Amino acid sequence: MSVPPGLLAALVDDAGLFPPTSLPMDRAVERHRADAEADAAMHTHRFLVPASRVGEVRRLLREGEVFALGLIADRGAGNLAAAGAEIAADPRLRLALVEAPLAAFGEEEASALQALLAELKDVPDHVPLYAEPVGRARPEPLLTELARRAGARPLGAKLRCGGVRADLFPGTGEVAGFVTACVAAGVPFKATAGLHEAVRHTSAATGFTHHGYLNLLLATAVAASGGDRHAVRDVLETEDAAELVRLAERLTAEEAVAARRALVSYGSCSTAAPVREALRLFGPALRPTS
Known about the structure:
single chain, alpha/beta, eight-stranded parallel barrel, two-stranded antiparallel ribbon, 10 strands
C-alpha cells in the first residue's frame, strides 16, 4: 500500500525566518532558492515573511526571479497595507496569502476581523486571509465570523501548535476542538509552530511535547470523515509511527482530498526535516518519479 498522492503534497510553507530557527534574511533567501531548485513535492514554495521585513527580501532578490510570499502581520494596523503595496510594486514578488493574529487588531473577534479586512482593501480579492483567534481555546466566535463573511476573498483560520515556551503548545483536547470546529464550520485552516517532525514526541532538548504534522493531518482526515472530537484527539495523541503510517495508507484519495481541503498547509522553520521525516516513514513512495 502507499499513501494517497495528494495527502502530503504542497504541505510545508517556508518559515525559516521564525523561531526557533530564525535564519538571517540572506541565509533564509538562499535556502528558499535551494528548495525551489530541489522542488520537493511537500513544499508549497511560499516564503513566509513578516510584513515589516518585506524590504529586506526585495534587496536580496535577483532580476527575473519571483518569490511567492506569505505575508505575516507583525505590527498590527497600518503595517499590512504598506507591505501589500510594496509587494504589488515589485514584479519579483507575488502575494500568495496573508496571516494575522486578530489580537493585534482588537479584543473582540468581529470588530478585529473588520479592522483586519479593512487593512486588505487594496489587496486583490483572490489572496486568502488566515486569521488567528483572539481566544486560543475558543475558535468558534472567529469561525462564525469567517463563515458569515465568506465571499470574494477566501477566509480561513490559523492554529498555533507550539512556540518557544511550553505554554504556547496547546493540549490535544484544544487542538481537537479547533480541528473539529473548523471542519464543522466549513472553514479551512493553516497551522504553525512546533510541527517539524511527523509524529508526536517529547523533545530531548526542551522537554516540550510537540504535536506531529502527520498526527494533525490524519486527525483532520478523521474529522473530515465525520469523526467526533474524541476520535480526533485519539489520533493527535498517537505516538506510534507505524500506526500513523497504517492510518495514512488506509485513506482513500477522496478522504485525503477532504483532509487537505480543511488543512491547507503549515509553516515550518525547517524545510528539510518534514521531507526527511516523510521519507523515513513512507520511503520510496514519496520520491520524485523523474
